Amino acid sequence: MSAQAQLVLALSAPPAPSLENFFAGSNAVALGAVRSLLAGDERLLYLWGESGSGKSHLLQAAAAAASRQTTSTATALHTQDDVEQLDLVAQLELFDLFNSLRLHGGQLLVSADRPPTDLPLREDLRTRLGSGVVLQLRPLSEDEKQQALQAQAARAGFSLDTEVMQFLLQRFGRDMRSLSAAVAALDQLSLSRQRPVNLTLAREVLRQLKP
Fold this sequence. Notes:
Blueprint: H1 3-12, H2 28-38, E1 44-48, H3 55-68, E2 77-80, H4 88-104, E3 107-112, H5 123-129, E4 133-136, H6 142-156, H7 162-171, H8 176-193, H9 199-209
Parallel strand pairs: 1-3, 1-4, 2-3
Helix pairs in contact: 1-8, 2-3, 6-8, 7-9
């Protein structure tokens, strides 16, 4: 595979979300709540926050973790992202699922961009969604973004110096998905070229991403 193809692949497929690669920052309580949900200690967890705060990451990571559980106490976990966007049919389906889980067991993890009381949904569904653990997620600060990117690089076996870090933050967007994809692309290009990750390589990534 050419360096160009590797780069495209890396940029289109940042690391799969997992609980291990979720950089919690100020959201450590939410990460702990997801783990408690997977352990069966909670029945319903509602996460809300603005775009880029990590809601989808946690839902996908939790679903993947639940699918790997093979013990007799494995969690029957159901997830629903962006509940504020549900149409009436989907709302009725989620309402029925909630009642079924209450009767037969299982866990429900949902996310939204606002607290349950502000959802544009049926009143009975809003009430049920707000009856569990409700936690707000907050976007990472600039310092936390840098720590998260350094942690991702460290898992891949390299480090990001100050120049490269600032270049990434200035040129690759501010959301963590874009930044994480850029670090993955740096890793791929560094391996294919047998060169260390530096500012020159970061500029080449940018050129290939935005020719």
